[in-house]
Fold these 4 entries.
Entry 1:
Amino acid sequence: MEQSVKPKKKRKFVTPKTAPYMFIAPAVILFLIFTMYPVISSLILSFQRTSGGVTEFAGLANYQRLFNDPLFYKALGNTFTILIIQVPIMLTLAVILAVFMNSALLKMRGFFRVAFFMPAITALVAYAIIFMILLDENYGIVNYLLNMIGVDSIPWLNDPFWAKVALIIAVTWRWTGYNMVIFLAGLQNISSSLYEAASIDGAGKIRQFFSITLPQLKPIFLFTFVLSTIGTLQLFDEPFILTGGGPNNSTLTISLYLYMNGFRYFDFNYASAIAYVLVIIIAILSWLQMKVVGDKE
Amino acid sequence: MMKKKKTRELLKKIGLYSFLFIGVIISMFPFYWMFIGATNPSGQIFSIPPNLTPGDHFFENLRNLNESVGIWRVMFNSLVITLIFTAVSVFICSAAGYAFAKFDFKGRNAIFFTLLLAIMIPYHVTLIPLFKLMADLEWLNTYRAVILPHLSYPFAIFLMRQNMKAIPDSLIEASRVDGAGEFRIFFRVVLPTMRPALAAVAIFLFMFQWNNFLWPLVVMNSSDMYTLPVALSSLVGMSRIDYGQIMLGTTISTLPIMIFFLLLQKQFISGILGGSVKE
């Protein structure tokens, strides 16, 4: 109002031309300092070596060391084992749950959705601690229940094989409901006319699931698969709390190994090389997954 | 015929509900177990047969927890860090999202593409240089060390941009004709129409920071600056673990979020899923 009365004396600084730069400035400046700079810096670090306070160019030495490091392969193997077993189990469970949740017979859908989603809001550290207690070999309630049905106690956190299983169970508990909600939204977008047509053609429910539901959910499978893959490759909090990477490094993940090299042995250069290998793996896997699904379309 | 169909439907219903109820038990039991543990003495959690009723040790556990990690201080740290982070980040990210959605300016696409690429990069890559930076600045064990690095959150900028696209250009144009300045338009016209998106992004950012573990673990090494997850993990490392206080600690970190979740289910789900699911 005032502006219309007062004649403009000086040229305005904030115009539609300059405004966008001011709007992005805080985000871009912070991004340059706290993301861009570290991303470049850690690439440089990975080609350097530091000894006795002196930093020098080391070429590919860190990467060479990495490719000859049995512990790195162990971490890589563990991470991929968990990835290959956990993600399909979790996504299958999530789809089945979503299909049940989508049933016309179901009432109280809201209640079930909240109950299944609840694990996804717990802090990773908090749920890892709860699972550590639930899975205690001697006194945990899980073994107590197993004993009740005549199964011997399982050394969940003290045996290389079972520690991986424990990790898989915990991660599946945390993320199945999360993925279920995504699938449920996908299911609700499938046109009901597709099912009606199939019913008229005499296709049963199971047939419909495989020839309509699954193909229609393909983009969502891709989305959840990429998300879960990236998440699993960065798995840190759970093994850190549950097993500390043990026993015998059987739950050592890439992120955990990176952390240990960086902040236990303070070998920043080597840890940076691990970080970059992780970036490359994520890039390749994401690209492959898009490619595989994209080609079939 | 009708009757047969009805019994079949009933059987289906029973199957459906029992499957889902088993799921609910698996999904909810750990929470119940946590509350049991938080109110019972340490050894009680391992009693055989398991004790499934709440006890009266809540205050004793609280006292022990406060003795070992200074829980009030830790809660205060977590709360201050998370609230400041969320408020500032929502503001920064929505301003950037607005510019990317509603302005045509030189370099827009290049900058936006760079931000998008950053979504794919695991934050472990920035961990070591960031730590060195914080150490050089002597910012270790400060709130800003935890708050600053993720304020510009590419994913949140991306979400805000997607949502801002829906604002009609004519609305912004009309405000300009009325003589409103650019900042005024942003605060008075744009942001008020964005409430649901702002809520979802705020919840997303809040959850990220409240649960953030690795970064605070690295930069907060004096125990009076611990955040909740870091304090909890330090309890696990103790030689003699007191399960009563540790379960109380996990309850404290989980319960407030649970209550918020129950109150704001829809915003929470869309927030945590990062807007990938629209109601």
Entry 2:
Amino acid sequence: MQLKPIISSQQAAAKLANNQTIMIGGFMTVGTPEKIIAAIADARVHDLTIICNDTGLPNKGIGVLIHNQQAKKIIASHIGLNPETGTQMNQHTLEVTLVPQGTLVEQIRSAGAGLGGVLTKTGLGTLVEEGKDIICRNGQNYIIEDPLFADVALIKASIVDKAGNCIFKKTTKNFNPVMATAATTVIVQAESIVEIGEVEADQFMLPGTFVDFIVEE
Amino acid sequence: MEKIDVRDRIAKRVAQELTPNTLVNLGIGMPTLVAKYVDPSQGILFQSENGMIGIGMDIPNESNLDPDISNAAGQPVTALPEVTYFDSALSFSIIRGGHVSASVLGALEVDQQGNLANWIIPGKMVPGMGGAMDLVTGAKKVIIAMEHCDKRGNPKILDNCTLPLTAVAAVDLIITELAVIEVTRDGLVLLEISDDTTIDLVQAKTAAPLIIYNTPKVF
């Protein structure tokens, strides 16, 4: 039996180093591991590159790390609900790369799946294609988008068993299960931790093999 | 006309464009109002790109609020009995893969080639594209629901977009409080006008030539 270590949020934050690339799950703060984020805020780790769908709300969700200026770069699809991100971008204290949401998740998925990237029509003829290769297949043009890896992925799950198997309820899934496949170290914040066998195995959405550490919420 | 009436008039007209028993994505803002005007017996399901098919028509109250259910704006929503939930990878397979029959979005600018701009005003407003670029690329029909002119009264329907594009030649239909306009290979065809305007007035507020094949219907 392979049990995953259950650690505190402070221990989770201590696994991050300055200048690392991290992924954080969640969508407009729904399914975001806020307890781990609070510990990262306290740990003052800085110059992070954060890959995330969005930067949450002002000083909420991933917005806490924006507010504390702990990020040097953001790769996200949407920053509109957190004006602090836009302000720091316009002041050139934060670099922001905006990526179409479907492309972002496929870049992460392809990294985790061992693929060399993805071909997509999304973004053709827009700023998104700048600096990228365009390839023609069967008479159709596609942008070649590279895989996106991270040093650490911070995700949130509703139920996690002690082997690290995860269930994500309803719309808390979003980027969480995909990010768990594309990072060297994966830390899951669990709303509840259960014994192995307590949940019907068919219910699990992410095998515990992707999870390195569990933080209880 | 009050702003609220304008939005409801547009939403009501958009609702008539949706095909029964299909999957539809409504963008953030005014497009979400469209759901209010869809007859539930038509079997139209609404997809939300954060990972849900089957958004309920009811607004959650204290008794049925579930913090684990939100729409693409992060707002709590209710779910139909037949709801399904999925991660972002599957959500965008649904979107890019052509499984959404109609995408309804707002716009900053639309032009006569069907080009759309709705994600950035350089130096001013940079919300990001979110799922919009994937939606307009993948949905079978792209309907723009917007006010005919901007806050200053300037046309938003142009001969050529001036802002950075969301997608090229993606828009099929434009619905405003004044008109229903189809984007065709030949240009913009005026299909309908509202009951409180005229063809000349609509053209005056549109910065691209409107083609008229038949007398526009009144809505």
Entry 3:
Amino acid sequence: MSGGLRLWLSRLGAMTLKELKQLSRDPILLVVIVYFFTADIYIAGAGVHMDLNNAPIAVMDHDRSAASRELIYRFRPPYFRLVREPQSIREAVRLLDEGKVLAVLDIPAHFQRDLLAGRQTVVQMQVDASNAMLGTLVSTYAGRIVARYGFERAKMHLGMGKAQLQAIPVVENRHRVYYNPNQSDPWFMAISEMLTVITMLSLMLPAAAAVREKERGTIEQLAVSPLSPAQILLPKVLAMGLAVLVGAAASLFLVIQAVFHVPIKGSSMLFFIMTALYVFATSGLGLFIATLSRNLGQVVMLVILIMMPLLLLSGAWTPPEAMPAFLRQAMHVSPLFYFTEMSYAILLKGAGLGVLWRLMLELALLGSLVFAFGVWRFRRQFG
Amino acid sequence: MGQATLVEASAAAPPMVRVRGFVKRYRRQVAVEGVDLTVRRGEIYGLIGPDGAGKSSLMKAVAGVLSFEGGGLEVFGHRVDSEASAEGIKARIGFMPQGLGLNLYAELSVEENIDFFAQLRELSAGVLAERKQKLLAMTRLAQFRDRPMKHLSGGMKQKLGLICTLIHGPDLVILDEPTTGVDPVSRRDFWAILAELLRSQGVTALVSTAYMDEAARFHRLSLMYQGRVLAAGEPEAILEQAPGSVVSVEVEPQIAALRRLGTSFSQVEGIGPRVRVFVPDAPPEAAAERVGATLAGFRLKDLKAGEAELEDAFIALLEKRRLTRISPPASDASYVEGKWGRFDPGAPGGASDGASHGGTGDPVVSIEARGLVRDFGAFRAVDRVSFQVRAGEIFGLLGANGAGKTTVIKMLTGILPPTEGEGAVAGADMRRAGQAIKARIGYMSQAFSLYQDLTVLENIRLYARIYAVPHRHLRARIDWVVEMAGLAGVTGRLTGRLPMGIRQRLALGCALVHQPRVLFLDEPTSGVDPVGRRRFWEILIQLSRAERVSILVTTHYMSEAEHCDHLALMYAGRIIADASPEAMKADLQATAGQLLEVASDRPLVALERLQRGGYAGVALFGRRVHLLARDVGAAIPAIRRELTAAGLREISVTPRAPTLEDVFVYRIMAMERQAREGIQ
């Protein structure tokens, strides 16, 4: 029955065109989409680093010797930045309290004398660990600097030159870094942010489009027309999905590839097909949100409510291995988990369908379930 | 002179509100331009006009919550020109903004709402308890104290709003369209309560409305249109500014008669089988003669001539100032054959064949409901509703909010399955062929559900594609809609930027783009000005008479119900009356008696006397009192005697033809009485 199918497609086309026109005439929505897919991803990539960067420290040098100056000299940019030399222990603690410095290095008197005499000596490092990540970085970096200095002083003390270095039994740790050879944080952060943005917009845009029809009463007009619920809902998903895909392409090629020089190892076609599948799955959730909301404000609230667990359970922010076992199981109901796994695999590792088919199938299954649920809710409300 | 006695002994006092040359602009848009008015102590002053007339802006400024660009404003004799001066008057003002219950809190109960407003005004507990008691009793809300506001009916919300506005005992209340969206029974109730409150508390009121037929509720009023005052004064004085008479006659063939009359008169309407003509500058007898002469050669029946109403005067005044043109040039000889070209260009689509396509004049049933029932849980929203709508008939479904009108429409349009009963629409069975029905009908809701961010043409095209108008007819259908709805020149404009009247006609055009034989209209004219409303009805009459489209319409406007060929009145899910408007009025006179209008120099005193005198349906209409009397011959002298004994003068008692509103109110009140007695 090709006539019937043609009519069905014609109606679908008319409605999709309508959605696109409405989107193109909503300046605020357009600004949101453009911002999130470009500037937001750039800020995430350029601004967030897992390295220690210019951490402010204070130094109390009670020795004031060549040895202490040499140690202090090693706390320098780009990792550390010496900002103060407090006169008393009380002042040092105050600086920590006020957050002016992240650490205080305390070098005792007779530091140089003890070293020259071949005696052990101690320096103290007081670290602000209110930001756990930063605190850990500071103490790790500082520990490495002090250890290296100590090792070199020990060698000097034993009278060893460069040549004798081979003779010491030292285990050297050699890394071989795959997929991100320079361990560049922008790569990870920018891709992760893009996945977050795709999730948020594919939840929000179809929900907003559906709830706007509710707010203006046009949904009633559509309900008495010969359109089926699928013909009313699918165009929203199609139009908004298209907008998200175009945005994702812009951020992948114009920001992630052009600005951060991420080599796209795998097939970008495969990435977009997978993204389309993912957008379809999340828009089902979006339609579900639309059935619960009466206005745009409620849509935004519910999107945030759903976004948070999706993100936390996705592995985008915390690796699955670090989670308790029951949460690790829960991750399998978050579509973003599949999306994250597959995105990194395609973009950085160059994985193909041969590796990914299983994840893809699971995502398709989950997506169909979620979408069917959204349509069912909608049909019950307006069918 | 009547005013002085009505507003007892306070005419010498300074006016409550004095507005001079008031101007309000929103950026470039002028909302109010040079308005003058004076509100005297103790009166109900009305602002009447359609949406966008500037009523709300003016009222907000008087309430001290809106700054303005020009002119002077004095309230209680104080100049209001700054935020600080506005603060000084607010304690003595009660302001109720537009919208059903918009100033109230949906989740709070009736009592909690009142208490909250009292606390805002820092009322002492004793005063609050006493006033609350009294106001709840007067508004008959006492038994609903604990009910959350969101579960109140529209009329009850407005009464609660009124209590909250009056709780601090203001000297002046400002009520912005308190009766919009409220059914006629609740409207009448609201006015009665307002009049009573004003009398007992000595409060002055500034009230706005979009209903022209409420003008009689005001002592004095300003008729507003597009930011200007068209006329001001007592209702009678305004009518005198555009003198004329209304002639109504049953005529065959109606469409040709409308065309003939359109060449000589500017205000011509088809109402049921009758035509209604406003004849300017003529007393009733002369007007009847002129209409009779114009219609020479037609079959005329039951020609009546009488006083004009405010809406006629309003439109006549607009015409005088050349602000509008009502009728299109009536030289078009093809009125009957199809004023806008053929309704069916090309082959008839799937929509127009089948049982709905009537032969020559035989009454084919287009909509039939047989014992429709719909339950929502334990609540029966629609109870055994049956009716028939014939091809080419305009059928009106009337009823208060929640009477079940919309549920009936939802079942007939196939959105909602009935619990019991059956029906057929446009030849398709309602229970089995819901999808076929959807393709064959046109539907227009009260929200004019259009896409505001699409252009006029894009909206028409979208609906044409949704309703599968064949590609080869698309151009012809779009042209037809543009022509019919008078949209030439705005087709490229965004819908959201168009005035209400045009949006309404566009919505109608979209509902008609696929040539449906059956049209459902759910409160299609809310918020549209009288000129737009008349133009809309002109189109509907044309559709039903010339194209034989069946139209089912629900409305709150009783003046609109007069246009219908047949009416069904719904109450609590059931149809309690089903007849033509004429038959309903005749029935009212037969069962409840003749409507009498009583005029006197002190109407408030007359109202109280007549209410205590035990007459039926006593209600105040501005300066006149209406009541129903079975034995007119005995009642007229009895009323005269009673009022004279009370010291009233200038008494006149005249029989009047009842309006549909009288019918509606009488019927509903009778049902409510029955329901109460059933409980007891």
Entry 4:
Amino acid sequence: MTREILNIENLFVEYSNIRGKVKAVRGVNLKLYKGENLALIGESGSGKTTLGTAIIRLLPSSGYIKDGRIVYKGNGNEYDISKFSEKELRQFRWKEIAMVFQSALNSFNPVLKVWDQIYDTARAHGISNRNFVKERAISLLRYVQLDPERVINSYPHELSGGMRQRVLIAMSLLLEPKILILDEPTTALDILTQRNIIELLRTIKADMGLSMIFISHDLSLAAELADRVAVMYAGAIVELGSVEDIFYRPKHPYTLGLIKAVPTVTAGFRELYSIPGSPPDLINLTPGCKFAPRCEYKNSVCEKDEPMLVEVGQDHFVACFRHKEIGNGR
Amino acid sequence: MEDRAIIQLDHVSKSFTVRSGIFGGRKNMQVIGDLSLSIGRGEVLCLVGESGCGKTTTGKLIVGLIKPTSGRILFEGKDIWSMNNEEFKDYRKAVQIIHQDPYSSLNPVHRIYNILSAPLFRHGLVRNRSEAEEKVLDLLDRVDLTPPGDFIYKYPHQLSGGQRQRVAIARSLTLNPKFIVADEAVSMLDVSIRLSIIELLRRLKEEMNVTFLFITHDLAMAKYFGWEGRIAVMYLGRIVEIGPTPRVIENPLHPYTKALLMAIPEADPQVTRNKTPMKLRSLDIPSLLNLPPGCSFNPRCPFWIEGTCDKEVPDMYEPENDHYVSCFLFRGK
Amino acid sequence: MKSREIVKRIFWEPLVIISRDKAGLIGFIFLLSILLLSFVGPYFVKLDTEVKLDKIYQFPSREHILGTDNQGRDIFSQIVNGGRDVIIVAFLAGLISTLIAVSLGSLSAYAGGFTDTVIMFITEIILTIPQFPLLAVLAAFVRLTNPTMLAFIIGFLGWPALARAIRSQVLSIKERDYIEAARVLDLGRMHIIFSEILPNMLSYIVISLIMAMTGAVYSQVGLIILGLVPFYGHNWGLMIQLAWTRGAIFYKGSIFYILSPIIAIVLFQWSAVTFTRSLEGIFNPRLRAGE
């Protein structure tokens, strides 16, 4: 068994707004192993992005970790990220865990050239040797197949969406992190560019042996890159397993529904099914399984109690009372 | 085909002028170049392409939100921009649009009742409030917002994305349209919601005999929604390939279509990990301000013929019945 | 809709929303008190016009809660009676400039082209003229015999900045998908402007109206203090002018005479501005009660 590098224990994250408390992440337990690709899959409001930003403590100001631990294991030590001070966080982010945010354009300061942004990032994390940063930046930009001299002197708006995404990926690698979190890395990119980014991420993984967490609503990204997949619904993980288990042997009605709801282009024409209803209100959560109102397998127990994750196969976990009745794949 | 066409585009092009730089003059940006297209009554045509290919502009030209720079757009055989008032009114009622973003397509200050009843009153389809209420309830029922009484006096922000999109669809139905442009109508919605909206559109098409132009960047959705219809693939303002959906998907002819199909990530690990993407000559999409001469795909195309593809613009060839492609590889076939 | 529901929507819900923002609520309470004092107060507190030489510049007492002026008249009664004209002129002037700004701004943005160019040209000319000196010059030429006249002059000069702001708002709303949908549904230009675009700017327009009002308060009080507006009657501006020219220059004891109208004006302005905080919530259905 590969060694675990990150261990999220019983994590609760909330946001407060005018209407009340949004329970965005509710009791998540999740391990990340060294060198693996983990995909967090879910729809808007599933808590996947909240979970990702909580790991590096970059939650928006209205959000806070209510309970739980985020244990990072590195350099022979264990650190609880959720207890870090701002100063400790600065030393930790980018060096140990880096994140590439969704919407590549917004991640840049529009009035700064790419080089200034790279140098600012490096300095913010304690590296102020200009030559060192420049050398490293140039080699990384070349590594992500960009022309370093041109890119480094450009303003963000002068680059295409795919180029910006590659710059962000290069920047995230600046301090050689052990874990890379990527939030919707291919969303909003053209198909040919998506393919290019996917190939790039494969190369990075092979060369550097990082652990990666992909956050996406797009099942195909998980299908492309993930070793393991965690499916989130209403702030909790409802199914966790290997990519084959999730795509070919789903045991949670929601996972099954998602997979049956997504058409493929080249895999023949197959009948699709839609999931009725819409996701629950995260402020006024009803008791019981949060998926029950949309579930065709639900019974009276599902409406009373919330199921816990149970192991249904090797390293395959499902939070569903009726998992035995969910058909074997398609 | 021509005689039962509901919408025809006849050598349509559309340019915008943009200023470049502080001292630079105005530049012409051609978004649509010489586009001809005929859409038959009751048909589903999927217009597929990546961002900036001009598919949304094509949709806006068809619903008459913008005027073409040159060429004609015909509705039931008549040029929409030389119609008399009466004819133009009928065209306006008959051709509707469903937008991509259900959060900006509904006016936040109005209740659903007002959103749906305004066109009814304006065009004299109802005379008083009770008639309007009845009609609005009926529309909500038709788009599966049930019970409709729960929705009629809500504001858009009280509905989920999927529910809003249903309201937007109901609005497009208020004037009993013959033709609907669905511009990325499901791409902003959650995966689990998308399919139910697609099913709704498909049902409405059957029930109301509406013709659809389904604009999308998602080939899989186009395939699913338009299996019985046709797909047109756009690249930089031109249609490069058009034909019956199964044939375009299973036997793509244009190198660009092939490249897309070979690259597209799919929700099936075994299928998607075994793809061997086409090696393109360049990753960059040329700028609309500076289109390459000849075929606009030539700087990226691995099958590029020097001296031909970079000099002449290819015509539409028909190597298979009803399956057209704009590529010199198929000249004379 | 039943009448009870209408009452609920028009009166009760806004109150609930106002009460949510603490500062806005305080502003609202102050504003309401000042309005009551100025419009209802005069029926109870008669303006004291009797000269009482034995009571000149008295400090506040139970009899005269704000003291007395240079002729021994009660200051409080002057404050109560001096607000009405100031507020009416400010409201009228604000209303006029907002009306002009909204009409010209939205017409300019919606019509575009030549109309837009002409309207914006005129707007910019008026915008570059320094307001106060022009007001002063105008006031010297035009016989300002009544408050309405003054309101018109201030109003006609106050609209350009707002017109430009309205124009840019309309330009951005014009591009929204729901406006496109309305065009495709052939709902008509009037419907699109008045029923689709302007309601989205209602809170902005009302807030601008209040801001225009506060601006108009300063303009008119300034004109009165300078003695450029010889209109009759009694108001806070005139009080300041009298307190200044007849007292404050000479006597320390006139402090309550001059401070009272100043504080009244400042309180009015502050409460109006603070109250605008709550307005956003009233006109934005997303922020309405219980939804």
